Amino acid sequence: MAQAENAERQGSRAGSRDEIERAILDAAERVFAEAGFGGATMQAIADHCGLPKANLHYYFASKKQLYRRVVERIFRVWLQAADSFESSASPEVALRRYITRKMELSRAHRYGSKVWANEVMHGAPIIQDFLETTLRDWTESRARVIRRWIAEGQVRPVDPHWLLYMIWATTQHYADFAHQIETLNHGPLSDAQWDAATETVCGIILRGIGLEGGR
Amino acid sequence: MAQAENAERQGSRAGSRDEIERAILDAAERVFAEAGFGGATMQAIADHCGLPKANLHYYFASKKQLYRRVVERIFRVWLQAADSFESSASPEVALRRYITRKMELSRAHRYGSKVWANEVMHGAPIIQDFLETTLRDWTESRARVIRRWIAEGQVRPVDPHWLLYMIWATTQHYADFAHQIETLNHGPLSDAQWDAATETVCGIILRGIGLEGGR
DNA sequence: GTCTATAGATTGATAGAC
DNA sequence: GTCTATCAATCTATAGAC
């Protein structure tokens, strides 16, 4: 009943507080991605979610805080993809699944990827602590797995870091440089093209470290 | 004599007009890279080259024009790297040389690479015509070369575009995400690490498309 | 909880003395 | 060609009516 009262008070057009916040975060993610933090304006974000500008300051105290919430949300998506790198699986399965998941994320969360890239390019003022803790721990943990594969003779000897950077770079490129890719492609990639690109990325990397078609 | 008069008139501290413009462009490249176009301020650029803010407007009419000049300069560096992809060479030599050159550029021109990435991520408002002409022509020309290699059985069958995107993504990642890499590495990459990363990138890609160590 | 109006701060750009 | 002072525009953030 308290819920219904609440909905009443909010008027008919508006959704719940969570829904409105999500709408604002979606709009902000897109505007931050396309204009950068400095180039983004609260007015543009308000326009993109059909809200009066002042309302944004009711839900989020400041532009900086809104930006921080956007970045935190992207971080959760990143963690989700990181989990798909299962150290218990074979190198073929683990890497193929991880690369595929990262490609899917680049397609589904283009704007999030761009915000992340912007944040890192600008020196990671917001997520520096995350880089030094969660990301570093995750990277070293997977590096150990890859070194184990190498010791077992399953994978050609490479520094795991250069391999991981290559996977991150290549998959995220399809989001961050989507505009360039779509210009060269005379339009957005089709489903078939996404599949082909994913397969090619998997193929080159797996074969490049000595997997698939062995020797 | 007219030259000496000119130097006289400019005062003792300042260099030639070209030197001052270059100093401004260097500073602008760095500030645009680290803050984005919207986040960059003329004041910050002026501080970075030790000039009063108003002088910037004497040499460059507007912030937008200064930005355009920075991007044009980066484009010339890009063209220089593109030339290292020699279609007359063997696939091993051509690709290894191109990748190596791109890695060198990522190391030498970190800020330029970031400005380029920013520009593309924001929809390439300035360089769109270049993407549709020079870049597209270059890409299709090299795609034809790669398809020829494939037809000759020298390279495994892959869509040349996915291969080129992979090379661009991986090499530019070392500039654009330098902050993340240096955080994970506990400091800048050493000469030996740059060499090792370059060698690993070459090795994985060449082997991934069936070159080096054949089968 | 929503919206209009505006205060307060920043910044791009220019005027004018030197 | 250099530098100080300042205008004009823009944007974040808030006040206050509804």
Structure description:
- The structure is a homodimer of 215-residue chains.
- Chain A is an all-alpha fold and 215 residues long.
- The first copy, chain A, has two domains: 1-61, Orthogonal Bundle (Arc Repressor Mutant, subunit A); 70-214, Orthogonal Bundle (Tetracycline Repressor, domain 2), CATH 1.10.357.10.
- Helix content of chain A is 75%, strand content 0%.
- Chain A has helices at 2-9, 17-39, 42-48, 53-59, 63-82, 91-108, 110-121, 128-151, 160-176, 178-184, 191-208.
- In chain A, helix 2 (17-39) crosses helix 5 (63-82), helix 2 (17-39) crosses helix 7 (110-121) and helix 6 (91-108) packs parallel to helix 9.
- Chain A starts with a helix and ends in a 7-residue tail after the last helix.
- Residues 1-13 of chain A have low confidence and may be disordered.
- At the A-B interface, helix 2, helix 7, helix 8, helix 9 and helix 10 of A face helix 2, helix 7, helix 8, helix 9 and helix 10 of B.
- The structure holds a DNA duplex (18 and 18 nucleotides).
* Largest protein-protein interface: A-B, 58 and 58 residues
Summarize the amount of helix of chain A as a percent range: over 70%
Count of discrete structural domains of chain A: 2
The helix/strand series of chain A, from N terminus to C terminus, equals HHHHHHHHHHH
Q: Biggest sheet of chain A: strands, sense, closure?
A: none
What's the overall geometry of chain A?
A: globular
Under CATH, the topology of the largest domain in chain A can be stated as Tetracycline Repressor, domain 2
How many DSSP H or I helices of chain A? 11
Cα radius of gyration of chain A in angstroms = 21 Å
The quaternary state of the protein chains shown equals homodimer
Number of strand elements of chain A:
0
In the CATH hierarchy, what is the superfamily of the largest domain in chain A? Tetracycline Repressor, domain 2
Span of the ends, CA to CA of chain A: 69 Å
